Amino acid sequence: MKLTKIILSELENKLKELSFDFEDSTNPWVFVRSREGYVKEYIEIDKSNWESNAIRCTFQIGSKSVSSTKLAERKVHEWYVYESEEELRRVLHNLREIIEQFALPWFAENAESIPSATPNYLDESWKSSIQEFMKKNKININNSESVGILDQLVISDLSQKDIYFISYCYGEIIINQFGGQWKYDADNGPRVDNIGGNPAFKRLTHELVNKVIKNKNLSLQRYFEDIAFVLED
Fold first, then answer.
1. 82-93 exposure pattern, b = at least 16 Cβ within 10 A, e = fewer
2. Is the pLDDT of residue 109 over 60?
3. pTM for the full model?
């Protein structure tokens, strides 16, 4: 009996009951659960390329992952070795128990909400608000020295709209200093493309702003200088 058939015969129905669907993949064999408003949860089984009869199971959600052995046994080893179909079925039966007892609570503990979509702050409806923001804070998008003003604003108490205003101004300064064009990405929001005439050089300015907000060791000025350095090469 082929490995795929054995895995599916032992796991597919049980995981279906838990809302995990098989992705029709082999080595790895992937089961995924989608819940509205949350990032997808994955159960992945793969076969060793080094051991002839060994499989492992990994649980993943967002950027976090954990092996079934670490979760259930607190052990470093990841692989389950089997010598026969009967032993393989016992391993898979054990995995079903681990999933119910350990993986489901782990998924619940590490559940991640899907971030709100970034609005299109390039839209005409944002124009007057952005201009008021620029006037109030004396931002000149034709002068790179205004990056310093944006850095001072980033460390202040900001609303979510303020973050998008700063992101727009920062993108405009980049375009005016180095060249480039705005492009709206439906999945990720506004993006500066073709920086310095390089089609491969692009930046999501709101992502840079959020990184600076989260990490006080970073600054928009530093990212601006990095862009200049890359274009000098």
1. beeeeebbebbe
2. yes
3. 0.56
